[in-house]
Amino acid sequence: MTSLLTWPLSLLLVIAVHCSNSLEDNKIPSLCTGSPGIPGSPGLHGSPGQSGRDGRDGRDAQPGEKGERGERGEPGQSGVRGLTGDRGDQGEKGERGTPGECAVAPKSAFSAKLSEARTTPLTVGDAVRFDKVILNEQGDYNPETGRFTCRVPGVYYFAVHATVYRSSLQFDLIKNGNTVASYFQIFGNWSKPASLSGGTLVHLIPGDQVWVQMALGEYTGFYSSPKTDSTFTGFLVYSDWKNSAVFA
């Protein structure tokens, strides 16, 4: 009787121990199956892991195709000027150049005298025609009119030398109808001729005219002979012609 009673108890004890071990392993045996539990909340993110080791260098690839040329960029700002460098060595002497054109200074000069036929009494207001040309290379003096016409602008010097005989003499140096200078020499019935000389500087521009003119009717004692002359001379002292290579 006693053994029959202890057998069921031993069986129950074995089952209880088996179920206890399964619960510890979070496993429910088929004999103790329950309803599925509610899903748990998501867990927190874990801390970052350690950096991995550098990988091996890759193999060199083949060069790619050349790309199209880009647009030209805008010029940059000018940099600060650098310091002046040391003076360089003297260079070699260059070849001699070809000869240049020769600069020719403007010229103008004349000189003329009275012929014996012109010593007859002259009229007041008339230009004295020194008709015997001594020098007139540029042709600026006209012996037919006794007048010099300016071609080259500048300063000129004019001089008159007169032999005075038979009467006193007074004449004027005229520029464009205006008196520039006057000269006078009295003659006192001497047996030999007297002389009268004078000169002055005049500034002229092209087209200006200069001549000698009788001043008074009773003083016309110009004289000329094979032994003595009366002359009219003029020449350019310096030019202000800006087209001249010499005087520009």
Structural class, by secondary structure, is mainly beta
Number of helix segments? Answer: 1
Q: What amount of the residues lies in strands? A: 25-35%
- Reported CATH architecture of the domain at 109-239: Sandwich
What is the 3D form?
rod-shaped
Order of helices and strands: HEEEEEEEEEE
The average pLDDT is 81
CATH topology description of the domain at 109-239: Jelly Rolls
Determine and state the CATH class of the domain at 109-239.
Mainly Beta
Low-confidence segments = none
- The percent range for helix content is under 10%
The value of Rg in angstroms is: 66 Å
Distance between the termini: 163 Å
- Total beta strands: 10
- Largest sheet data: 10 strands, antiparallel
Domain C1q: 103-243
Region (Disordered): 34-103
Main location: secreted
GO cellular component, one term: collagen trimer
What does the model show?
- The longest helix is centred in the N-terminal third of the chain and has 23 residues, at 2-24.
- A hairpin with a 2-residue loop joins strand 5 (154-175) and strand 6.
- Strands 1, 2, 3, 4, 5, 6, 7, 8, 9 and 10 form a 10-stranded antiparallel beta sheet that branches.
- With 248 residues, the protein is mainly beta.
- The model has no long low-confidence stretch (mean pLDDT 81).
- The chain is built from 1 helix and 10 strands; from the N terminus they run αββββββββββ.
- The protein has one helix at residues 2-24, and strands at 109-113, 132-135, 141-142, 147-149, 154-175, 178-185, 194-204, 209-214, 220-223, 231-239.
- It has a domain at 109-239: Sandwich (Jelly Rolls).
- Pfam families: C1q (PF00386), Collagen (PF01391).
- It comes from Anabarilius grahami.
- Residues 1-19 form the signal peptide.
- Residues 34-103 are annotated as: Disordered.
